[in-house]
Amino acid sequence: MFIKGFQMGLLDRESQVMGKESRIGEGAARRNKQYGGKKGFSMMEMLVVLAILAILLAVGSTSLLGRLDTSRLDAAVRDMITIMQQARMTAIRNNADTAVLFDAAQNTYSLCTDSGDGRWSTKEDNVCPKTIRLASYASGIRYGHGKAARAVASGFGRDDISYRYNRVAFTPRGTARHAGYAYLENKQGQSVAVGTITVGTILSRKWDGKSWKRL
Q1: 3-class SS at 2?
Q2: pLDDT in tens, the chain (215 residues)
Q3: Comparing C-alpha atoms, which of 173, 171, 181 is closest to residue 207?
Q4: Please, how many CA atoms are within 13 Å of residue 152, restricted to the half-sphere of its CB?
Q5: Order of strands across the sheet that contains 212-214
Q6: In the chain, what are the domain boundaries?
Q7: Could you give the angle at the alpha carbon of 21 between the alpha carbons of 15 and 25, nearest 5°?
Q8: Torsion sign (Cα): 72, 80, 146, 136
Q9: Beta bridge partners of 184
Q10: Is residue 108 classed as helix, strand or coil in its secondary structure?
Q11: CATH second-level architecture of 75-214?
Q12: 215: exposed, middle or buried (C-beta count within 10 Å: 0-12, 13-18, 19+)?
């Protein structure tokens, strides 16, 4: 009797285990049916996803490059304004004319503290402690008026520098001997003008597609 009862217990336990396995199998089958038996993405779905990613990347890259070109032009303008301010303060401090010379051929401009013979046009004897290369900013930064339809005042000048003799000299009183502008552009066609009026005030203007706006 004991042996028979033991055998019956084993059969009952085996039946329970088989029942559980059967229910697990049925559950897996239902899940497989519910999700359509898919094991992953099809080749067509992968190609569609890759195409969308490529489009998003292209749009994002174009936008990023445009902002980078604008940022570099803004940096070039800030530096030119700083050099002009330094020239003006140096003239006042040293009680002597100090000039900023623009060189369109070399795509540079220089802060010069001494003209040597009194004529800034003879570059060989000028003392110029700072020379800025516009090409160092990249993004095609150079002298030019880009897409601007008209000048801020009195024309763009022969090489997009409207200063007489391509220079502005500041006097010991802080005034400028000439009024004018130097125009800068980037490869996007954006343009900014940096200049002075005779009282020595330094100005900057940016073309917005219709007119020059104060920065």
Answers
A1: helix
A2: 544 444 455 445 555 545 555 555 555 556 555 555 555 678 887 777 787 777 777 766 666 666 899 999 999 999 999 999 999 999 999 999 999 999 999 999 999 999 988 888 888 899 999 999 999 999 999 999 999 999 999 899 999 999 999 999 999 999 999 999 999 999 999 999 999 999 999 999 999 999 999 98
A3: 181
A4: 27
A5: 142-143, 180-185, 191-196, 202-207, 212-214
A6: 2-39, 75-214
A7: 140
A8: negative
A9: 143, 192
A10: strand
A11: 3-Layer(bab) Sandwich (3.55)
A12: middle
What CA–CA distance (Å, rounded) separates 15 from 192? 87
Token look-up 């920065």 returns 215
Residue whose token pair is 């060189």: 103
The token pair that represents 160 in the structure block: 């997009």
